[in-house]
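Worked example 2:
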Amino acid sequence: MKVSDYVNSFLTKNGIKFIFEMSGGMITHLLDSVSQKNNIQLVSLKHEQSAAFAADAVGRLTGIPGIAMATSGPGATNLITGIGSSYFDSSPTLFITGQVNRHELKKNRKIRQLGFQETDIVSIIKPITKKAFHATNAKHVPNLLEKLYEISITGRPGPVLLDLPMDIQRSEIKISKVKKISIKPKKFHNDALLKKLLFDLKNSKKPIILAGGGIHSSQSLDLFRKFTHQIKIPVVNSLMAIDVLPYNDPLRIGFIGSYGNRWANLALSNSDFVLVLGSRLDVRQTGSQIKEFKGNKTIYHVDCEKGEINNRVLGCTAINSDLHSFLTRITKYLNKKKSPSRQDWFNEINSLKKSFPESEENSKISGINPNYFIHKLSKSSKKASVIVSDVGQHQMWAAQSLELNKNQRFLTSGGMGSMGFGLPASIGAAFANNPSPIVLIAGDGGFQSNIQELQTVAHHKLPIKIIILNNKCHGMVRQFQEQYFDKRYQSTLWGYSAPNFETIALSYGIKAKTIKSESKIAQSLKWLWDKPDEPQLLQVMIDTFTNAYPKIAFGKPHYEMEPDLPKL
């Protein structure tokens, strides 16, 4: 069997349905093998970064590694941002890069390059992958591919990479059996720690759960929902866990962090017991005043990576466990327990929520209020299976105001925070969740980063409903400049421009509209969903000086947010 044929057979055996790629000379054997067998769909994008983001989305949604391929040199290096995104957000992904023939490799020669487009991609991306291998012998490829696939989905998921020289791809190898990879689930055995946790929880008056993206990366969503309804305590979420509870779930409090819902940050601040599930407690969640965040709280931190616990926030009780294993055990343990009612605590939180509606945080702006628009978009978009957000102010408005149902997922670039993530990730989501519609919320700045993928959307007639909140600037950095640079808006407003996205979409053959006032919202959203199976673009004009509020004030505790409001 030719090595490139083996790669196709292995991926097929392990349930891979799509490979995202941009063609190049050093992956032609791979492309040919996949297309000849026709078991896996090749999805050609216009840039390798887009292919990587699309693979990232598939990995997150399915738990099966998303696959992206690229040629050597610029093809491989263009994957880097997407590889980093997968690494920081714990997405199982497998990247396959072509490489020049082995006799064209510079090896130990004191030169920069021997073969055309020769680039040592393995050395470059080692810090942002779980593992990366360069194949030096054709007979090693099956073992390398099996190892990489298993590493990608074991423990905290993440990206892996296999670099295949051209002459290895076309080499013949003997294969007796193509292996299907399976991972044996771990078990949680420390019942003494569970008893201590539940004892401290029982004696708390204001407990809260902080849910993070680890719930998804551990494939624990159903277990988490079962657990929360057994234990019956309020849940706040990080950016990567907007969707872990439906919007109308009585246990769901809201989004915490730098741009979190004001009431959610206050609830977290007022709590006396915090159970952290799959969240890193990074600075965007805690604010810079870590001692203020910790206070006198009892904190139990569950994470599969020991180094994440007591890293920034000290004094936490560490539970170093795979989240799926922990939740499996604790839900069984709780079957015999009765959860105490904490109605006074829920009443306190609900009072905070009523006092600080997020749509009032920007009440003085003119034109369309983005939080108000996101609520309306949510109500009209129940047919969508995934809501994707790019990166910027619109990302925060979405996180603050989306009303997701129990069957909807939310995807965004968290750790990498890369503008340009949204459109390619929507494409990946559309293939993973076919034929369900996908909603993309983007800003004018981020959308331009990978705007070329409108052709991919049009080519495949993907049912992506594209919302561009256009404030004619790089809004999040502009807001920063407003506060800390005396309104010197260099490169965010001064020197920046954006096209008319309605005209751009129409040129790609995608139906498009623009609205400038709140009176047009209902009509435009009805138009957006008249034909759920078609791509459409809605440009929503936002006042340039609309800020993402509330926001943790610089150097202040997480519960002190701008703009200043009367204290309760």
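The radius of gyration is 24 Å. Residues 54 and 427 are 6 Å apart (CA to CA).
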